[in-house]
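W.,

You were right to be curious about this one. When I first looked at the sequence I had no strong expectations either way, so I just let the prediction run and decided to look at it fresh. Below is the sequence, 149 residues in total, followed by the output.
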Amino acid sequence: MSRSFLAEALLRSELKALKVEDVSVSSAGLHAFPGSPPDPQMTAYLSSMGVSFEPHEARQVSKQELDWADLILVMERSQETDVEKLSPDAKQNVQLLGKYVTGGWEDDILDPFGNTPYHYRLAQSQITLAVKSLAKWLIQNKNRKKTFH
């Protein structure tokens, strides 16, 4: 478990810094190993950035959570299909996190698990950039009804 945990911790930190209190952030996996701790390379990255985070264990996302969420962020395009299978009604709220990277980059954020330190650094930088842009987008659009296609 690494990407969703990292994105959650970074987004919480960014929203706190921007004094946004009316946005709820959580993370769960589509193929998680429930109870697993966060990846040590991701917790070390957060610590190096001065980002505090709550104790966390991996968990599976539920249909109820997907139906409740206004915005569901996925790391890979294949996960959009997985979300739709679990909750067809949630499809309109699913977006690729990579779309929020400044400059219009819109690509998968690949899972670094089991890869080299380079792959971890790449995922960390992609998620960090995307989360910063996402936080600004949330502030600009918080009063607008969110519908996504």
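Here's what jumped out at me. The CA atoms of residues 55 and 144 lie 33 Å apart. And, maybe more interesting for your project: The chain has one domain: 3-141.

Coffee later to discuss?

I.
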